[in-house]
Amino acid sequence: MHAMQYEITLPADYDMEIIRRRVATRGHLLDDFPGLGLKAYLIRERADGSPVDQYAPFYLWATPEGMNSFLWGPGFQGIVNDFGRPVVQHWTGLAYDEGQAAGAVPRTATRRRVRLGDADAPGEAVAEARARHARVAGGDGVVASALAIDPRHWELLFFTFWAEGAEPPAGADDRFQVLHVSAPERASLVGRTECQPTGMRVR
Q: What is the DSSP string of 3-24?
């Protein structure tokens, strides 16, 4: 599993209805995309307290072939044509779990990034992150939650989807509105846990 997101920051006077119409007319095009576990079409707005107006789709890829096919194909090229080529952030998947509200349509998503300190042992940090992920995934109103890591920058990513009416816990999380979800291979993500320590020691 691979997590992926790109953020398109828009001018302060940009009409966000343009993005809503874009998703309404094009969002269904990935509803059966091979290798895609889940794509959430996300925005955040200054009007809701965000520091920026932004279109920021988030993906969980069930296969690297699906991710590559999208990035080199017409779907991503449409983003490039309309907005320029964004930086594509990606993380190695560590865990994915469905929550108590798994059958609901998510309306809000939260993102928390945690940088590991120079003295943090990666294995211990991942184990602690898995425990936190499990607690979050079991919370009220959670549709689904994913945990991933960027080993280049040693950054953990916690991404959680919430049902309508659910109130995510207070904190430093980034919040997004969910406009649409394409999830052709979501079932293949359920209970998925990757990158387990082997216990092998190199001397």
A: EEE--EEE-TT--THHHHHHHH
Q: Beta-carbon neighbour count of residue 58 at 10 Å?
A: 24
- In the chain (203 residues long), the average pLDDT of successive 10-residue segments reads 97 94 96 97 92 96 96 95 96 96 95 94 96 94 97 96 88 89 94 55 44
Contact 96, 191 (CB under 8 A): yes
The Cα 156–Cα 169 span in angstroms is 18
Distance CA 82, CA 99 (A): 35
Which residue ranges make up each domain of the chain? 2-188
Domain 2-188, CATH 3.30.70.100 — does that match?
yes
Instruction: Answer whether 0.85 is exceeded by the pTM.
Output: yes
